[in-house]
Amino acid sequence: MSRSAHPAGPRHADVLPEGHYTAPATDLNVLDEKVWSRTVTRDANGALTVGGIEVARLAEEFGTPAYFLDESDFRARCRAWADAFGPGADVFYAGKAFLSRAVVRWLQEEGLNLDVCSGGELTTALDAGMPAERIAFHGNNKTVAEIERAVEAGVGRIVLDSFQEIVRVAHIAQSRGLRQRVQIRVTVGVEAHTHEFIATAHEDQKFGIALAGGQAAEAVRRALTLDGLELIGIHSHIGSQIFDMAGFEVSARRVVQLLAEVRDEHGVELPEIDLGGGLGIAYTSEDDPREPHEIAKALTDIVTRECESANLSTPRISVEPGRAIVGPTAFTLYEVGTIKPLEGLRTYVSVDGGMSDNIRTALYDAEYSVALVSRSSDAEPMLVRVVGKHCESGDIVVKDAFLPADLAPGDLIAVPATGAYCRSMASNYNHALRPPVVAVRDGEARVIVRRETEEDLLRLDVG
Ligand code: LLP
After folding, report:
1. Global model pTM greater than 0.90
2. Which residues participate in catalysis according to the annotation?
3. End-to-end Cα distance, the chain
4. What domains does the chain contain, in order, with CATH numbers?
5. What pLDDT digit, counting tens, does each position of 356-408 carry?
6. Which atom of ligand 1 is nearest to the CA of 279?
7. Looking at ligand 1, which atom is closest to the CA of residue 366?
8. Which of 177, 191, 302, 336 is the least buried, fewest Cβ under 10 Å from its Cβ?
């Protein structure tokens, strides 16, 4: 569809549902820097540019829908996390947020470590040259084959998630004459203020071993007796998209308490604690994320204080941010296909992607922002719902947002902060072809994950 051949869309700024929504006070042409990556700006004609390249050029060259990842922003965020925690701590990027070989290389260059949670992520990490000792392997049900591969590759740590796994990993390592460095993931009983599906430290869920009832202490007891294991620390991850540091503080306190109990019972001071990932980012102007240095200070202070009062030497701290590094670095670019005003309700704007490239709105009720990016507009704001092209009415990309009322088919719109958990959770629903990820930096754009083709789909269909 050409971007200029269409007449202007219908104007219906007058159809806002009563009482619920007020048009934004801010100019829709102004981009909130909180939700856009660092090199995004508008050029003199009002078109958005990233890494110095105009979006229309990107759409021309790479097509839509596509994810555009601001490489210098990604690298800057890695450095901000590494600097904030300093050489006495370790930052593991959580690969589940988005992983590709290019990302693994950037992480290495910026001095970060990597957390993987499946054989596929491990393969990608090793293939791109990440040294195995800088990899941590997670998961509540790692297969025997995955554990064997991780142990043989020499991953720096395996995070044990169940009593069965303690024995499994010990056996696999010991039978190869190895001693695997491990941490035990504990559930600290914190209710993180986030969506139920991404909260992980309350007791009624599948991850970790509960501190409550002495379960975690028992896991430590067993791990310490097994020759195939070198227990190096305790791990806790309380959830995702969290803004309030209180949950992390409770978690740190409880983990330190366990370290003190372990010291008292076994005479061993475990040298590491990992406080997981989960730090929130701004998806809309309403969100106020913490900066890495504030997070580092809060976590380091609480661990140091608790250790002093328990008379323990302070362990080495590690953290595992995924979303906070990659989330803000990318936006998804779509082309508007159809525009349907629903009298008295809102206007449905359909784009050429949808729940197959961003499932988060449907799955977690996630909120996103959206902007017209191929041009500026002085038209009135209209209330829209941005929807995809899938056969499902829950196929919503942005539930409620304002776009200019002169929006027309062929316009390009972009949804910011889609770097995390969008491409990595993308699907082929309706045999959609998963979009490419294009890295943009200093006036150059290159595909780091290519667009799927129909041949890719048919290749798997061997019936
Ligand atoms: N460490 C562990 C052990 C984790 O389970 C996770 C995320 C992280 C670190 C990274 O969390 P982050 O800093 O990215 O919040 N699909 C969901 C998020 C699931 C997170 C799973 N674990 C979403 O789209 O919001």
Report:
1. yes
2. 391
3. 34
4. 41-70+328-460 (2.40.37.10), 138-321 (3.20.20.10)
5. 999 999 999 999 999 999 999 999 999 999 999 999 999 999 999 999 999 99
6. 13
7. 25
8. 177
